[in-house]
Amino acid sequence: MDAAGDRSLHSSNVAVIREVYDSEYSQQCFSMELEKALDACCTVIVIEPSQLGDETARWISVGNCLHKSAVFSGACSVLSGFLWPGRVVPQVPFSIFSALCASLYTVSWQFDHCVKYQVERDPRRLARLPILGALTAASPVVLVRKDNTRKIVLHWTASLAAAALCVYRLYRTMK
């Protein structure tokens, strides 16, 4: 087991948002508990309330989709620039889409603490968490903190390389 796996097993790094309805404002309380856990940089966050868990998982999925779209379209732009060196037309839409996805990801997720988390779906990894036996929900959402520095560098590198190559090609065709 690696060092990150060892850290995730300590109860001080695990936060559980329990599905306990004691008032009409329970959903707001659940959200506040999640915010506290995210601010505390817990290694593992278990979300029992299904609505909050689903919304959080969807939010993370949208961010992942934007990231992958930025990288893929940036790579397609660069590839099309090398496959058709005399033509700029196939490259431009990919480059614009990549820059838009990277920008939207940065604007929407840069200051959000959820950007540091991924939804854990691997049953083997989930089985290593000692807290899962004491949960009351049938299918909680489990968030695991991950370092996303390389992810951000990757999508900005792909987007900027695509844009730079596109601008260079446009400059050469207008000469």
From TrEMBL:
Show the GO cellular component annotation of the record: mitochondrial inner membrane
Q: How does it sit in the membrane?
A: Multi-pass membrane protein
Pfam families from the entry?
A: Mito_morph_reg (PF14972)
Biological processes per GO annotation: inner mitochondrial membrane organization
Q: What are the TM regions of this chain, as residue ranges?
A: 152-171
Instruction: Kindly list the places in or outside the cell where this protein is found, as annotated in its UniProt entry.
Output: Mitochondrion inner membrane
Keywords carried by this UniProt record: Membrane, Mitochondrion, Mitochondrion inner membrane, Transmembrane, Transmembrane helix
Question: Where is this protein chiefly located?
Answer: mitochondrion
Under the heading PANTHER family, the entry gives:
PROTEIN PM1, TRANSMEMBRANE PROTEIN 11, MITOCHONDRIAL
Functional description taken from the UniProt entry = Plays a role in mitochondrial morphogenesis.
Q: Which family does it belong to?
A: Belongs to the TMEM11 family.
Q: What is this protein called?
A: Transmembrane protein 11
